[in-house]
Structure to design on (1204 residues):
């Protein structure tokens, strides 16, 4: 033990160093808390939130070609796609597309597998509900969830 | 002083030597435990010999692919239709073992550059002891099993994955046992095998002879069935246990 | 909450106290349950009861295709999800014998090292909290937030990232990622100094950690300890150097080691590792090559019949995947070699003869994540 | 009536000394209510200060900047279900929190907030305080034992060992401070008021006396008092990462809140000992310097510095009021924040009003002592919070080592040296 270390020990230098750090951070400028409902977090562009089924903005038709790839790719098998043949154009047209939020782990594999950029995981992350209707259907996914505005 | 304790790894070899001196099992050759990455017997796949273990695995394909996972189109062919095959592992180490244990070491091969030995279960403790004591495989990385219910004679592969710090080499030691056979425990050789063997017992029901405390580890005591066996479906649950202990009806 | 196990007293000396720590104890890092046999405050024996978080990941793997199983591995060591994913992808790539493009390898290194930083920050915060220093937790979590923001921007998720795919990376680096990562490196180093200011020389911290949970190098190897616990015992072994994967051989970094194998050395080793990670990240960003990020891999992956064991240096130790393929779409068997599980096994040896307060210190220093212990 | 009140208040003697039971009762009520109120305030203050040190905001929702949070918590605790564990000793279990609050409050009998602002002046005041405050060990052991559970038992064991051993060192340095009172007079005193008056007459706070002996004694006391109150870094009896909550693990609701109240009251009590013994009690800094004589108001017969110092309490209140008003001004302009903003404004205006009252001449003179005493205690409270934010926790054996092998020898040395120096001078 050198003299310096004895002195440092006697005068609590090690403790004072720590105290200085905590003292410094008391400044209100250092506060990192995000007051969530008032302060909106910035969501990254690639955020994997609730899925959205994109529609062609010009025609309003769904981009989905009912290829079923997303349902096949899903590790939890929670997507179910049902299609029917359009009698006029003889094309396969999506009839129902349902999705179970309660089992989804937002891995993004369905998004990767979609050949037409129809299925996309959106930046919507607020889908807590007071009811147990976790299965979300096509209409709701096409319009997207309406962001909640919190009131007291 | 605390500042001195971690020399920021400026003197690594001395520290390694210290550790080696503490007990002779580390770095007894006097060389540092870590060599710069040299592909010692690894990373050199050359397709050659018949895949013994692999072919044994093939008939054991228990679970058929679910129909949902196979689209109507033919599945895309693998890039290399033949695939790499095991090749003989020609090095002093396996040759020594072969000559010493004779037919007990049934196979010494490398697959994709990874060496493995297939040995007789009866000789397993001795082979493993030699591997640890004489070949410096002082670190038991993992111990696990694979279930092949369709195989006629032996239903389980028990796999020890060993690593040697001095050789910087990994080897898998495999043995094949019948359902219900006991495997000699290696807890005496590597204390780390304790929990690994317990887990193996928990998941496969393989008995390890000489294990100090062979109980279930992840599943609760009294659970019925061994989940990682192929005849244990993924949704199966010991409903009786759940009802008795959790006082709920199983949600399956 | 916790109750004593009085019925177990029958076979024990009546002077001993059985203390049931967990699974709802504040410092068992989740749902670890340790049954302590105490003589006064001295620990004379421990028994870990694990499995409360067992989800059967290995069984799930046998029922999923190779690509489908990828997101599940994130859920094992959920504070180091990227490392888990890297290990799994490397194992499957080895199985199908695919070489990953250089750019993808570098991106993987950046992400993995960022994840190592995040994991060590979580460790530091919780470890300090266990020993009673409350504040480092908030500082480390604040700084970890920057990493999570980078993760979110890169791959769209903060915790369970699913950042890599078999054969490379799904996501190209976002605009300005290089700059952001470098800025983060500059931001983090002074913060690490600050953590050290709070703890490294603090006499209470030193007393609480020095000589606690000592394990010698030979014992550490025998117990299968890997990662920082092994290195703190003086064994200079890091898979990134010993058997480099994913372009780690192209970076210049050191393996910090300790000498005494005690909690304090493990602390110093991890702190030094954080600095080395920053160093690796800087090199990787500066030398990030151009090119494709995905190798040619079939969508319906059917590896040839065979088996591989591939392991990486996860923040907590050697994370290995032993995959057996039967040539079908699904792995025949996936075995995960979890570092936390094996490291936790050394708890008994490390706390025997020490005090109750040291038990929490040692649990903290082993840096276990129960999601990985129980899988 | 008013005349009687002001007349009584201007007597230079405490109600206990005067034997005036009615006033003593009033004082007791005021002190107990005041301490409880301060504990509530501290609850908020600690959470806020701790939060800010940890780059958090702390309570923000109940009331403006969480000002009403302690009240909400108190309400919640009072309405919680009263749980007594099945295996507990019911009588002792319910007695322990009551006993601990009784001891915590009894201590305040002799705390001199000012020359006359004490309930009574005992000639064994220091001894009384130390004695009564060590009774809380008993209550903690009662609580831990009665819970019939392992963690509380271990917490109680730790607590008893810890408090007993730190009391030794504490007692030694207290004696050294008591010895300092005897320097010029050869007659020492154990009376709390007497000790402060000795500091006044010697023109020395005892922390500076026989430098560095007084300082060392003070530091030893400052460390021991943290251990005595079971606060970080000596919070082993309730170390949440080891013993969940220590001796009060099994307590909840109202009983638990009594433990909290006692803990914080204990902090105030030991701080007041420290303030009284070493920091000059109610004396303001540089109390012996008066500055030039001024004669502006007829009732004022002091110096300019005295006059300036007497304005300080009011100024402090104004500052706080300003703080609140600025805070109210900076509240987000949202409909949801209307009530909060209004509340903060009212709070600030209230503080301003109190400041105005404090400016009035008779109140101003009477309040000064209390102001300085509280201010000094406030510093200690801040230190308690600051330690908690910064330091890790000692282990039990290390704690005992610090107590017996470090503090006790130092305390003993200080005591002997003080005695020698005191005799020589």
């Amino acid at each position: 033990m050198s003299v310096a270390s004895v002195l440092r020990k006697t005068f609590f230098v090690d403790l004072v160093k720590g105290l200085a750090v905590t003292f410094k951070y008391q400044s209100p400028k250092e506060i990192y808390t995000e007051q969530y409902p008032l302060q909106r977090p910035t969501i990254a562009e690639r955020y994997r939130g609730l899925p959205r089924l994109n529609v062609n903005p010009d025609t309003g038709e769904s981009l989905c070609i009912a290829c079923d790839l997303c349902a096949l790719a899903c590790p939890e098998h929670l997507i179910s796609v049902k299609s029917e043949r359009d009698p006029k154009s003889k094309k396969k047209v999506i009839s129902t597309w349902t999705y179970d939020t309660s089992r989804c782990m937002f891995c993004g594999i369905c998004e990767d597998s979609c050949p037409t950029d129809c299925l996309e995981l959106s930046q919507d992350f607020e889908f807590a509900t007071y009811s147990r209707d976790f299965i979300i259907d096509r209409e709701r996914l096409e319009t997207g969830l309406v962001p909640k505005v919190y009131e007291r | 002083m605390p500042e001195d304790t971690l020399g920021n790894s400026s003197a690594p070899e001395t520290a390694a030597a210290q550790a080696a001196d503490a007990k002779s099992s580390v770095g007894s050759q006097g060389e540092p435990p870590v060599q710069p990455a040299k592909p010692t017997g690894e990373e050199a796949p050359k397709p050659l010999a018949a895949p013994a273990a692999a072919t044994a695995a093939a008939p054991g394909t228990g679970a058929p692919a679910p129909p949902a996972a196979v689209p109507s189109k033919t599945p895309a062919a693998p890039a290399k239709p033949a695939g790499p095959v095991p090749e003989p592992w020609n090095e002093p180490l396996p040759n020594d073992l072969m000559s010493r244990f004779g037919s007990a070491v049934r196979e010494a091969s490398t697959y994709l550059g990874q060496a493995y030995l297939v040995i007789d279960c009866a000789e397993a403790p001795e082979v493993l002891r030699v591997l640890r004591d004489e070949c410096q495989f002082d670190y038991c990385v993992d111990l696990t099993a694979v279930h092949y219910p369709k195989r006629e004679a032996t239903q389980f592969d028990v796999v020890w994955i060993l690593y040697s710090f001095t050789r910087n080499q990994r080897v898998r030691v495999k043995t094949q046992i019948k359902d219900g056979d006991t495997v000699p425990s290696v807890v005496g050789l590597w204390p780390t095998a304790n929990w690994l063997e317990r887990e193996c017992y928990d998941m496969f029901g393989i008995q390890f002879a000489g294990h100090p405390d062979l109980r279930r580890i992840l599943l609760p005591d009294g659970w019925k069935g061994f989940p990682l066996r192929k005849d244990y479906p993924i949704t199966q649950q010991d409903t009786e246990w759940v009802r008795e202990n959790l006082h709920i009806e199983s949600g399956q | 909450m916790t109750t004593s196990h009085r019925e177990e007293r029958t076979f024990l000396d009546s002077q001993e106290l059985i203390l049931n720590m967990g699974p709802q104890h504040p410092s068992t890092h989740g749902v670890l349950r340790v049954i302590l046999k105490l003589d006064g405050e001295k620990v004379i024996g421990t028994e870990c009861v694990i499995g409360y978080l067992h989800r059967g990941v290995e069984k799930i793997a046998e029922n999923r295709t190779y690509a489908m199983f990828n997101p599940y591995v994130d859920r094992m060591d959920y504070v180091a999800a990227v490392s888990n994913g890297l290990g799994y992808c490397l194992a499957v790539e080895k199985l199908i014998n695919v070489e990953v493009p250089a750019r993808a390898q570098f991106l993987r290194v950046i992400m993995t090292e960022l994840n190592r930083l995040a994991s060590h920050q979580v460790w530091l915060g919780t470890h300090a909290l266990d020993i009673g220093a409350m504040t480092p937790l908030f500082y480390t979590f604040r700084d970890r937030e920057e990493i999570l923001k980078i993760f979110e921007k890169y791959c769209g998720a903060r915790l369970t990232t699913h950042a890599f795919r078999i054969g490379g990376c799904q996501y190209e680096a976002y605009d300005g990622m290089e700059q952001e990562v470098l800025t983060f490196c500059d931001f983090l180093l002074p913060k690490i100094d600050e953590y050290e200011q709070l703890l490294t020389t603090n006499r209470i911290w030193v007393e609480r950690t020095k000589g606690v949970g000592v394990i010698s190098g030979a014992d550490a190897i025998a117990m299968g300890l890997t990662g920082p616990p092994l290195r703190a015992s003086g064994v200079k072994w890091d898979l990134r150097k010993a058997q480099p994967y994913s372009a780690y051989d192209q970076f210049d970094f050191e393996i910090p080691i300790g000498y005494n194998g005690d909690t304090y050395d493990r602390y110093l080793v991890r702190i030094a590792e954080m600095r080395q990670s920053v160093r690796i990240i800087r090199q990787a960003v500066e030398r990030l090559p151009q090119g494709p990020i995905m190798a040619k891999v079939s969508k319906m992956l059917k590896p040839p019949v065979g088996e591989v064991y591939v392991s990486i240096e996860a923040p907590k130790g050697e994370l290995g995947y032993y995959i057996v393929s039967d040539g079908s779409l699904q792995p025949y068997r996936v075995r995960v070699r979890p570092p936390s599980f094996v490291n936790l096994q050394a708890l008994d040896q490390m706390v025997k003869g020490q005090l109750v307060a040291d038990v929490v210190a040692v649990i903290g220093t082993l840096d276990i994540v129960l999601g990985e212990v129980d899988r | 009536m008013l005349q009687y009140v002001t007349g009584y208040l201007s007597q230079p003697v405490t109600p206990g000394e005067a034997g005036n039971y009615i006033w003593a009762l009033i004082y007791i009520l005021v002190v107990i209510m005041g301490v409880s109120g301060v504990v509530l305030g501290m609850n908020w203050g600690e959470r806020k200060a701790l939060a800010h040190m940890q780059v958090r905001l702390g309570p923000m929702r109940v009331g403006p900047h969480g000002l009403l949070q302690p009240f909400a918590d108190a309400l919640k605790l009072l309405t919680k279900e009263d749980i007594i564990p099945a295996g507990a000793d019911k009588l002792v279990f319910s007695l322990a929190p009551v006993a601990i609050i009784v001891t915590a409050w009894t201590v305040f009998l002799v705390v001199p907030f000012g020359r006359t602002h004490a309930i009574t002046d005992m000639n064994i005041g220091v001894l009384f305080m130390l004695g009564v405050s060590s009774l809380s060990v008993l209550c903690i052991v009662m609580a831990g034992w009665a819970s019939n559970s392992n963690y509380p038992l271990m917490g109680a064991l730790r607590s008893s060992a810890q408090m007993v051993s730190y009391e030794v060192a504490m007692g030694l340095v207290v004696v050294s401070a008591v010895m300092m009172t005897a320097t010029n007079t050869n007659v020492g005193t154990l009376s709390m008021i007497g000790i402060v008056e000795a500091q006044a007459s010697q023109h020395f706070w005892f922390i500076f006396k026989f430098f560095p002996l007084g300082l060392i004694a003070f530091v030893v006391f400052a460390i021991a008092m943290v251990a005595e109150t079971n606060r970080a870094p000596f919070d082993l009896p309730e170390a949440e990462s080891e013993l969940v909550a220590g001796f009060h693990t099994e307590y909840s609701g109202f009983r638990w809140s009594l433990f909290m109240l006692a803990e914080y009251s204990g902090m105030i009590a030991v701080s007041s000992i420290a303030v009284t013994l070493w920091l000059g009690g109610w004396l303001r800094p540089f109390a012996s310097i008066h500055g030039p004589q001024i004669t502006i108001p007829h009732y004022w017969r002091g110096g300019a510095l005295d006059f300036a110092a007497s304005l300080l309490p009011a100024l402090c209140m104004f500052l706080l009021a300003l703080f609140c008003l600025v805070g109210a001004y900076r509240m987000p302009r949202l409909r949801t924040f209307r009530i909060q903003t209004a509340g903060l404004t009212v709070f600030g205006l209230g503080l301003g009003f109190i400041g105005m009252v404090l400016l009035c001449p008779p109140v101003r003179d009477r309040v000064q002592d209390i102001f300085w005493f509280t201010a000094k205690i406030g510093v200690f409270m801040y230190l308690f919070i600051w330690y908690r934010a910064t330091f890790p926790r000692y282990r039990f054996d290390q704690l005992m080592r610090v107590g017996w092998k470090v503090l006790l020898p130092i305390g003993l040395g200080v005591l002997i040296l003080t005695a020698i120096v005191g005799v020589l001078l």
